[in-house]
């Protein structure tokens, strides 16, 4: 099977997507079609434009040119209904600290059009799966980082979306929870959900992604399965491929200089 074109529906499509905040181009013409059921690992150096791309697709960022289609519809003209089919875990999020997890999840489910009873029932069950039943009525201000992240993950999935955007979703999760979450991703994809997964944790991206898209200098520098990239770049791990494709070979020198400066008397 060709992982780039599975012959299924195109769920997400960008054509010549460009963005400039005013200080030069951030995205320089991105063309990408993502198919139903794909897990796309979206990687790139800090500042490459990953979050910008995601914010544009979510309809949160104006001022771009080119075309973005989700579920076949141009997001400039399709209204906001498509957002009910999307789940999103942002890199950083402000939760409503004065709400309990139960209240927050009901509120979040209702924003996605769920009725209160159904949102509460699913929230209860999903919190239990993450081992958080005992905390469901505690205020979010008392939650640890990992607990908050689990609430965010549940809130992104409560309404059973078709398309998921995850930006560093593992942040703060312990090793057991990471294992569960990776398995959840694989199952969601096999059920036909499409997952756009942005992260700097290369060994996870390497393992979970059907397809890896590397953004560098506002352009797609690589696009293929991990095996494709490994073959093209003659490197062993995604971290090494990333270093090679972004032209980075100086880690030892930078570390040495950094420590010398730290130790300067
Ligand atoms: N609201 C904004 N106004 C001006 N410039 C911005 C804005 N948001 C992002 N940028 C710039 O756009 C570029 C891409 O930023 P973006 O956040 O999309 O990168 P990223 O690939 O998600 O980075 P990271 O891996 O560090 O999260 C950066 O140079 C950043 O300074």
TrEMBL record:
CDD domains linked: ABC_DR_subfamily_A
MF-aspect GO terms: ATP binding; ATP hydrolysis activity
Protein keywords: ATP-binding, Nucleotide-binding
Pfam family, one: ABC_tran
Coiled coil: none
Highest taxon above the source species: Bacteria
InterPro entries, sorted: AAA+_ATPase, ABC_transporter-like_ATP-bd, ABC_transporter-like_CS, P-loop_NTPase
Domain (ABC transporter): residue spans on this chain: 12-242
Protein name in the entry: ABC transporter ATP-binding protein
Source species of the chain: Sporolactobacillus putidus
Lineage of source species: Bacteria, Bacillati, Bacillota, Bacilli, Bacillales
């Amino acid at each position: 099977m060709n992982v780039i074109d599975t012959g299924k529906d195109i769920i997400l499509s960008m054509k010549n997507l460009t963005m400039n905040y005013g200080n030069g181009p951030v995205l320089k013409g991105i063309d990408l079609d993502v198919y139903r059921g794909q897990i796309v690992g979206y990687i790139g150096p800090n500042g490459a434009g990953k979050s910008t791309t995601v914010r544009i697709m979510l309809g949160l960022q104006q001022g771009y040119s080119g075309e973005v289609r989700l579920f076949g519809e141009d997001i400039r003209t399709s209204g906001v209904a498509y957002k009910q089919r999307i789940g999103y875990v942002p890199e950083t999020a402000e939760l409503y600290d004065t709400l309990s997890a139960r209240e927050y999840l009901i509120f979040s489910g209702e924003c996605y059009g769920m009725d209160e009873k159904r949102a509460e029932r699913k929230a209860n069950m999903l919190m239990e799966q993450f081992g958080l039943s005992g905390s469901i009525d505690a205020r979010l201000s008392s939650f640890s980082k990992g607990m908050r992240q689990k609430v965010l993950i549940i809130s992104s999935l409560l309404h059973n979306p078709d398309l998921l955007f995850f930006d560093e979703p593992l942040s703060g999760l312990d090793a057991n929870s990471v294992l569960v979450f990776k398995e959840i991703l694989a199952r969601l994809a096999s059920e036909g959900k499409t997952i756009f997964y942005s992260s700097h944790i290369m060994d996870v991206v390497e393992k979970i992604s059907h397809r890896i898209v590397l953004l560098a200098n506002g352009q797609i520098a690589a696009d293929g399965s991990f095996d494709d990239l490994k073959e093209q770049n003659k490197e062993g791990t995604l971290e090494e491929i990333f270093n090679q494709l972004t032209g980075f070979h100086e880690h030892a020198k930078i570390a040495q200089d950094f420590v010398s400066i730290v130790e300067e008397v």
